[in-house]
Design goal:
The chain is mainly alpha-helical. The protein has 6 helices and 2 strands. It has a two-stranded antiparallel ribbon with strand order 1-2. The model has no long low-confidence stretch (mean pLDDT 88).
C-alpha cells in the first residue's frame, strides 16, 4: 500500500486540531503560498483576513501567542477550516513585522 493511501486511512481518526497541524506541515513543505488570505480595504481596514470571513490574521496570531490551541480556534470560529489556520501561520512567517505591528496597534486601540 502506498503512503498516500495510509494517510487517507488515518485522516478520519484525527481530530480537527490534528488535521490543522498536518495541514500546517504540508503547507510548510509546499512553500509559503497562502491563497486563503486576502486584504480588502473594505474589510477590517484592509488588514489581511481569512477569505470568506472578517477574521484578521493578526488576531489569530495573537491568540496563538497567548496559548490558544488550533483546536480551540477552530471551535471558537466555526467558519474557520484547518487550512485557513495553516495559511494564516504561513502568512505570519513571511510577514512577521507587519503582523507584530498590527497586534500592537490593535492592543492600543
Amino acid at each position: 500500500m502506498s503512503t498516500i493511501h495510509d494517510v487517507e486511512k488515518l485522516l478520519p481518526a484525527l481530530s480537527r486540531g490534528e488535521k490543522a497541524q498536518l495541514l500546517k506541515w504540508v503547507v510548510r513543505e509546499l512553500g509559503d503560498d497562502f491563497p486563503g488570505i486576502d486584504s480588502d480595504p473594505k474589510v477590517s481596514g484592509g488588514e489581511p483576513c481569512i477569505v470568506r470571513s472578517r477574521i484578521p490574521v493578526w488576531m489569530l496570531e495573537q491568540a496563538r501567542r497567548l496559548g490558544v490551541s488550533e483546536e480551540d480556534l477552530l471551535h471558537a470560529y466555526p467558519t474557520l477550516r484547518a487550512e485557513d489556520l495553516a495559511n494564516a501561520w504561513g502568512y505570519v512567517r513571511t510577514h512577521q513585522e507587519a503582523i507584530d505591528r498590527q497586534i500592537v496597534e490593535n492592543e492600543n486601540a
